[in-house]
Amino acid sequence: MVAVFNKELLGISSPSSSGKLWNLEFLGHLQVQPNPLSCQKNMNSSCRNNSIYHLILCRLQSMRAVKIVERQPLHQSLEWIISIKEKLEQARQDDAAGSWERLSIYRVPHYLREGDIKAYVPQIVSLGPCHHGKKRLRQMDQHKWRSVHHVLNSTNQEIQLYLDLMKELEERARACYEGTITLSSNEFVEMLVLDGCFVLELFQGAAAGFQHLGYGKNDPVFAMRGSMHAIHRDMIMLENQLPLFVLDRLLGIQLGEPDQKGKVAKLAIRFFDTLMPADEPLTKGDMNRLGSSLGHTSTFDPFSDLGGLHCLDVFRRSLLRSGPKPVPRMWLKKRSNAIRVADKRRQQLIHCVSELREAGNKFKKRKTDRFWDIKFKNGILRVPCLLSHDGTKSLFLNLIAFEQCHLGCSNDITSYVIFMDNLINSHEDVAYLHYFGIIGHWLGSDAEVADLFNRLYREVVFDINNSYLSHLSEDVNRYIIIGGMLGVQP
After folding, report:
1. What is the value of pTM for the model shown?
2. What DSSP string describes 23-63?
3. How far apart are the C-alpha atoms of 298 and 352, rounded to whole Å?
4. Alpha-carbon distance 288 to 329, whole Å?
5. Mean pLDDT estimate for the chain
6. For residue 419, how many C-alpha atoms fall within 13 Å in the half-sphere facing its CB?
7. Nearest to 396 by CA among 301, 303, 308, 316
8. Per-residue DSSP letters for 81-140?
9. Residues 413-439, mean pLDDT to the nearest whole number
10. For residue 467, which of 77, 190, 251, 355 sits 20 to 30 Å off, Cα-Cα?
11. 31: pLDDT strictly greater than 60
């Protein structure tokens, strides 16, 4: 306890004090009885002294000459200072040069996940540290261990070989993840081996056949049936990723050839082919070109030097192959009013289908598997077919989240989704596009498709002038103005 005295009322002066309050401490921590009358029953010297102090302090308080201030014990103050220093040290490490270089697996921001949390959270299998150990996902662990057993059995290798290699990659792998990782070193390394072998078994089984790998035709996991669709969806989520270089090295051990760059990416594209939102599947030639570009050139993978790429990133690049050249976003160099939240009142790229039809525009299906490659000429909007199913929403939301979080990539998927949302304003718009083969879906109704697009990009940070579709939208709007059939909203 600290007594703080008013020096003017007490007649105390101090040349070094400029304020009206002067701190005095009674023998460190003064013990004062709450009621001096309680001491009358036991009038020993200690009690009498405490009573005297109490009476003095009560009298001084009544004169407004002193106030009593509780003081933290010394050991608590030291703990507080130590915790602050630890936080500052962590901040210094976080701010050190190169600490953000490999960051590529992000926690989905709260403003994006609100209302659609299931689209970002795995339901069957966890990969990486973000959802590791969650109770509802532990059931898959036994199948992960089965995959490790199959790998070791087929290669005649020891588990220590895999653990040692992942130990070497631990620091680099940890740097890929946003946020605090609570796993110990051994736990993290074990997770990399367990999850990595599981992913590679799925990739190779989908490519060569699971029975070829030694799994039974009725296997509950390692078979192209049953829960595989849900596993596909979980494995494409942003928070549920493993660094690609981890998978490359693990596959290198299995095959006895350390340099496997590009092979895992090619396997991943084949594995996730069923999620492609296009009705023109990848041909064998497409697969070969994609694998080649992923493994041997920098045109398809301009950020490979930074490492930390993952399956969601590879899948996104496969969707955008030969697409618009990525333009890294330099947020700090742009004017603050150039980047806005994607609000329909302010981010209207194009009018909806009904309005465009009223203005004389026509729609035709464009035959290509590049669903984003929209063209416009002479009043005809040519739009590739988009297939929508129960996994489309989660796929697009995670692709958008990655584009929002990773400053090194373009916003092409976000641009496409916003463009399509502008086109689709009602179930009538969906029905019209479906009639022309532009939208195919296995959802319950056209209204569900309209609702899907209308909910995809809430609170998304988007610069309308930085969209690959901005020039096309201007052409469409210019055509409308020239035609004099529909005024463009300001």
Report:
1. 0.75
2. EE-SSSS----S-GGGGGGS--HHHHHHHHHHHHHHHHHHT
3. 38
4. 30
5. 78
6. 26
7. 316
8. HHHHHHHHHHHHHHHSTTTTTT--B-PPPHHHHTT-GGGTS-SS---SSTTTT-GGGGGG
9. 93
10. 355
11. no
Tokens describing residue 220: 């509950």
**Burial tier of 110 (Cβ tally within 10 Å: 0-12, 13-18, 19+):** exposed
Instruction: Give the C-alpha separation, 368 to 443, whole Å.
Output: 23
| pLDDT class of 482 with cuts at 50, 70, 90 | confident
Among the listed residues 296, 306, 262, 264, the one whose alpha carbon sits nearest the alpha carbon of residue 409:
306
Contact present, 465 and 338 (Cβ < 8 Å): yes
233: left (phi over 0), alpha (psi -120 to 50) or beta: alpha
Q: What SS3 class is residue 477?
A: helix
Q: What share of the chain is helix, strand, coil (3-state, %, to 5)?
A: 50, 10, 40
Q: What's the pLDDT tens digit per position in 59-116?
A: 655 655 545 555 666 667 888 888 899 889 878 877 765 567 778 999 999 988 887 8
pLDDT digits (tens, 9 = 90+) for 305-342: 334 489 999 999 999 975 554 444 433 333 333 444 44
Contact 342, 466 (CB under 8 A): no
Q: Give CB contacts under 8 A, 24+ apart, made by 131-135.
A: 131/239, 131/240, 132/183, 132/191
Query: How many Å is the Cα radius of gyration of the chain?
Result: 32
456-485 per-residue burial string, b: 16 or more CB within 10 A, e: under 16: bbeebbbbbebbbbbebbeebbebbeeeee
Axis-axis angle for helices 185-208, 141-155 (nearest 10): 70
Q: Within a 13 Å sphere around the CA of 126, how many CA atoms are in the beta-carbon half? A: 17
Of the chain, the percentage scoring pLDDT greater than 70 comes to 71
Residues 6+ apart with CB under 8 A from 50: 31, 32, 33, 39
Please list the alpha-helical segments (H only) found in 334-469: 353-358, 392-405, 412-423, 427-435, 446-454
Q: What DSSP state is assigned to residue 141?
A: H
pLDDT value of residue 19: 42
- Residue 379 to residues 221, 382, 474, 487: CA-CA distances in angstroms? 50, 10, 12, 16
| Residue entry with tokens 């041909």 | 283
